[in-house]
Structure formats: structure tokens, C-alpha cells
Amino acid sequence: MTRLPAITAEPLDEDEAEAAFGAMLDGTVDDAAIADFLVALSDRGEQAGEITGAARAMRARMVPIAAPAGAIDVCGTGGDGLHTLNVSTAVSLVVAACGVPVAKHGNRAASSKSGAADTLEALGLNLDRVAETAEDTLADLGICFLFAGRHHPAMGRIMPIRRAIGRRTIFNLMGPLANPAGVRRQLVGIARPAYVPIYAQAIAALGTDRTFVVSGDEGLDELSLAGGNELGVVEHGHVAMQRVQCGDAGLPAAPITAIRGGDPAHNAAALRALLAGEPGPYRDAVLFNAAAALLVAGEAGDWPSAAEEAAEAIDKGLAKTLLDCWIKTLK
């Protein structure tokens, strides 16, 4: 069996981390050693090179798909424990309705009541066909859902270990960094504001055309209406940190409780109402995050115009029509 490196105050370099995580994913390390390694890494705090190496190991073992130029992903790490409505799922539909191809990476709920897959299924999307048709729907409709379990089979042996540990590890940060479509533009939400610059540095090392890494001050893994947000802009291999709030996009503030979610049926109904034009904090949260995604995609020049473009995609029925077509295509 492969021996993992010791976790000390000195971070592993990218190559060491990639080799260690590759061995874990390939099954050449015993479960107890993996658990000890992950806990020690979490206790010390994961650094950018370690995140980069782990992501490279996952990317090397994933099942990829082809994507059109300019495709983006809108995906959060999850794990914020705030149980909000599905913002990034709605944002994906709105942004795709604006003409930007969206390769949405996601999974079922781990710590929330309804993950992206759960809500899409409740809306009527056939998850048994979503993986096999991903390339086609991305090319034809401008959207697909990349069900993480189908595209990362190597994670199968890691999941029981993560459940046994019962706490957050570096794998909670990996989803957005291992998109099977190999997107070069992303809006990534993480549930740890202090980690935004570290995570952004990892993305810069992995390579991106333009990525926003965001976190609400309360630990929300997307842009929050409730207050300030950390924003790391990753472009040309560099990271620039900014502060942003909903007023920058011309949107009103609202507490997190205003977008509290529920089970998949509840969240699906809220998303349907949103696409039908229902006003309120959920719409505003989606517009704020969709504005960020449109800025990432280069489809708008500033926050207010980006939010207006997203609002038009909802109010003209474009996002609702896209969802209905997508569901019909997978039947």
C-alpha cells in the first residue's frame, strides 16, 4: 500500500499533493490512513498548492465531456449549513437563457435539504438520462447537468470514509474545481470567506480565463443579499480581491432567512414561481449571482446592466421555456 506524506506545518507542494490524492483515489491507500490524513490536513488548514494538487488528481480520473467555447459553470462547494433555496441551479437556467452555455456541475444534497440534483429531479428532469445526454443538451440547448457521481467514479471509495469522518475535509472544496466539461470560466461559491484568496490562488494555478470566487460574510456559498461579500477575481493567472454587496447591482438587501429553503418539492415550487416572474428576495439573490456569472462570461460590462439582462431572461419567459425544453428533451 502507498504511504501518504505526513502533514506538518509546511504545506505539501502541488506534485506531492497530486500524488497523494491520486493514490487515495486509485485505492492504494488503506481507509484509516486516508481518514487520518484528511483530518490532519483539515486541522492544519488546506493551502493553495494542496487544493491544486487534489484537483489535478480528480481531473485526471474524471469522465469528461466536450463543451462549446465560452461554456461556464455556476457551482458552490455547499456545506454552509444555511439551508437556502437553490440559487446556483436557478442562476444556471437564467444565464443559459441569456445565451451563455452552462455546464452545471452538481450532486444530491450532502448537508442541505435539497441539492441541485434533488431539485432538478423534483422539477421533472430525468436524472437517469441527464449524464448520457449532457454533451447533446449543452450543444443544442446551451445547458447540461453534470451529475458528480456519474463523472467521478473514483470518488466512490472515498465517500464512505468521508461519511465516517463526519466533518468537513478538503473534498468539500473539490466539486467546483473538477468540472467534467473543463470550463475555463466559473462563478464559484465557497462557504468559508477567509478561504476565498487561498481558493482563488488554487484556481489561478489550475488555469482559467476568468473566475469569480465568492463567499457571503455569514459563510454563504454564493453572493449574499444580507451584507458584504468577499470576491476573488481570477484572471490571467492573478488574483484581485474585492468587496461587493447587492446594492452594487441595484438590488435590495434581505436577510438569509428570506431565502430559506425546504425539501426538493418545496425548492422546485419556489424555482418555478421565480421563473414565472414572482418578485422577492429569492429573485433578487438569483439576479445578483446571475449578474456575477454574466460578468464572468463577458456578457455584461457592469453589475447593474448584468442584473438587468438576467431579469429580462426571466421576465420574457426565456428561462422558463429553457427549463421546459430541457425536461421534454430528456423524457
From TrEMBL:
<keyword id="KW-0057">Aromatic amino acid biosynthesis</keyword>
<feature type="binding site">
    <location>
        <begin position="86"/>
        <end position="89"/>
    </location>
    <ligand>
        <name>5-phospho-alpha-D-ribose 1-diphosphate</name>
    </ligand>
</feature>
<dbReference type="InterPro" id="IPR005940">
    <property type="entry name" value="Anthranilate_Pribosyl_Tfrase"/>
</dbReference>
<feature type="binding site">
    <location>
        <position position="84"/>
    </location>
    <ligand>
        <name>5-phospho-alpha-D-ribose 1-diphosphate</name>
    </ligand>
</feature>
<comment type="similarity">
    <text>In the C-terminal section; belongs to the anthranilate phosphoribosyltransferase family.</text>
</comment>
<protein>
    <recommendedName>
        <fullName>Anthranilate phosphoribosyltransferase</fullName>
        <ecNumber>2.4.2.18</ecNumber>
    </recommendedName>
</protein>
<feature type="binding site">
    <location>
        <position position="116"/>
    </location>
    <ligand>
        <name>5-phospho-alpha-D-ribose 1-diphosphate</name>
    </ligand>
</feature>
<feature type="domain" description="Glycosyl transferase family 3 N-terminal">
    <location>
        <begin position="10"/>
        <end position="61"/>
    </location>
</feature>
<dbReference type="GO" id="GO:0000287">
    <property type="term" value="F:magnesium ion binding"/>
</dbReference>
<feature type="binding site">
    <location>
        <position position="222"/>
    </location>
    <ligand>
        <name>Mg(2+) 1</name>
    </ligand>
</feature>
<feature type="binding site">
    <location>
        <position position="222"/>
    </location>
    <ligand>
        <name>Mg(2+) 2</name>
    </ligand>
</feature>
<keyword id="KW-0460">Magnesium</keyword>
<dbReference type="GO" id="GO:0005829">
    <property type="term" value="C:cytosol"/>
</dbReference>
<comment type="subunit">
    <text>Homodimer.</text>
</comment>
<feature type="binding site">
    <location>
        <begin position="79"/>
        <end position="80"/>
    </location>
    <ligand>
        <name>5-phospho-alpha-D-ribose 1-diphosphate</name>
    </ligand>
</feature>
<dbReference type="GO" id="GO:0000162">
    <property type="term" value="P:L-tryptophan biosynthetic process"/>
</dbReference>
<keyword id="KW-0328">Glycosyltransferase</keyword>
<keyword id="KW-0479">Metal-binding</keyword>
<comment type="function">
    <text>Catalyzes the transfer of the phosphoribosyl group of 5-phosphorylribose-1-pyrophosphate (PRPP) to anthranilate to yield N-(5'-phosphoribosyl)-anthranilate (PRA).</text>
</comment>
<dbReference type="InterPro" id="IPR036320">
    <property type="entry name" value="Glycosyl_Trfase_fam3_N_dom_sf"/>
</dbReference>
<feature type="binding site">
    <location>
        <begin position="104"/>
        <end position="112"/>
    </location>
    <ligand>
        <name>5-phospho-alpha-D-ribose 1-diphosphate</name>
    </ligand>
</feature>
<dbReference type="InterPro" id="IPR035902">
    <property type="entry name" value="Nuc_phospho_transferase"/>
</dbReference>
<feature type="binding site">
    <location>
        <position position="88"/>
    </location>
    <ligand>
        <name>Mg(2+) 1</name>
    </ligand>
</feature>
<feature type="domain" description="Glycosyl transferase family 3">
    <location>
        <begin position="71"/>
        <end position="319"/>
    </location>
</feature>
<dbReference type="Pfam" id="PF00591">
    <property type="entry name" value="Glycos_transf_3"/>
</dbReference>
<feature type="binding site">
    <location>
        <position position="162"/>
    </location>
    <ligand>
        <name>anthranilate 2</name>
    </ligand>
</feature>
<comment type="pathway">
    <text>Amino-acid biosynthesis; L-tryptophan biosynthesis; L-tryptophan from chorismate: step 2/5.</text>
</comment>
<feature type="binding site">
    <location>
        <position position="107"/>
    </location>
    <ligand>
        <name>anthranilate 1</name>
    </ligand>
</feature>
<dbReference type="Pfam" id="PF02885">
    <property type="entry name" value="Glycos_trans_3N"/>
</dbReference>
<feature type="binding site">
    <location>
        <position position="76"/>
    </location>
    <ligand>
        <name>5-phospho-alpha-D-ribose 1-diphosphate</name>
    </ligand>
</feature>
<feature type="binding site">
    <location>
        <position position="76"/>
    </location>
    <ligand>
        <name>anthranilate 1</name>
    </ligand>
</feature>
<keyword id="KW-0822">Tryptophan biosynthesis</keyword>
<dbReference type="GO" id="GO:0004048">
    <property type="term" value="F:anthranilate phosphoribosyltransferase activity"/>
</dbReference>
<dbReference type="InterPro" id="IPR000312">
    <property type="entry name" value="Glycosyl_Trfase_fam3"/>
</dbReference>
<keyword id="KW-0028">Amino-acid biosynthesis</keyword>
<comment type="similarity">
    <text>Belongs to the anthranilate phosphoribosyltransferase family.</text>
</comment>
<feature type="binding site">
    <location>
        <position position="221"/>
    </location>
    <ligand>
        <name>Mg(2+) 2</name>
    </ligand>
</feature>
<keyword id="KW-0808">Transferase</keyword>
<dbReference type="InterPro" id="IPR017459">
    <property type="entry name" value="Glycosyl_Trfase_fam3_N_dom"/>
</dbReference>
